[in-house]
Amino acid sequence: MLKLTKALFCAAALSMTALAQAADPIVIKFAHVVAENTPKGQGALMFQKRVADDALLKDRVKIEVYPNSSLFGDGKEMEALLLGDVQLLAPSLAKFEQYTKQLQIYDLPFLFDDLAAVDRFQQGPQGKALLTAMDDKGIHGLAYWHNGLKQLSANKKVIVPKDARGLKFRVQASSVLEAQFVAIHANPRKMSFAEVYQGLQTGTVNGTENTWSNYESQKVNEVQPFFTETNHGLIDYMVITNAKFWNGLPEDIRTELQKIMDQVTVEVNKQAEALNNTARQKIIDAKTSEIDPLTAEQRQQWREAMRPVWDKFSDEIGADLIKAADDSNKAP
Ligand code: LMR
To answer: Which CATH fold topology does 24-326 show?
Structure first.
């Protein structure tokens, strides 16, 4: 009798453990390097909220968001994803060079006229195919998120390319961006995003390139008295996951997560431009810095000075891909 009770007790305890295990939600850590009041920061929070509110997912998946390089920063985050220490990232498209040369396309200066052209390319067959270009390395792309077009900043007024000669510019970890500054006889320095403010403050670098939302949310205007409205390049993101982790999720969960990701992507991409405009206005209101617009003729000088970069990387990226992206500037 005693034996039977013991056996029953053990069975009950076992099934309770099994139940507890079944009830444990899958934790998905989403790490990124920017502030929360940016397109990517907002997108990560929106994704977290929609998953938490979703009837199918709310008890089965928990999204944890780590902004501002608080879990992993540049240089570490991709390795962490491959090791399974984080499940979602959204690095800027400039940060994938080690995994595929094709994505370097997004760093080519003066490639896209505006975000509508970027959309046409990303939603077209070539752009979509790039989402899976790193699957063989264990990295799977789920979506493209916009930030916006890049502007220059510096500790002196920079209106035409020759004004930038000799200045040290912080760049993301991208050979194309290095070449872009070499083309205008400036000195590029690769530096992680978390180090930018200090790098500018201490004079390790004299200037940089980024979007208004990244400048404003990092208070870069406190240490950069001049901005030049060049719109010369793009900061966009690929939301990525560890391919093995993603494929190992129960199918209903994976499908629902992708559905929510697609919905959030539409929202992020709709809001990005407005967020950047608000950030630009905040910099104007702060009266810390001068924002210099360019005339068409001045902008043409930048275009001509930077365009040789296209030829330098054409073989690595693929001339056909560059043509497809360039063609997306023509509205259908
Ligand atoms: C940068 O390093 O400047 C950007 O990639 C940061 C970001 O994620 O927007």
So the answer is: D-Maltodextrin-Binding Protein; domain 2 (3.40.190)
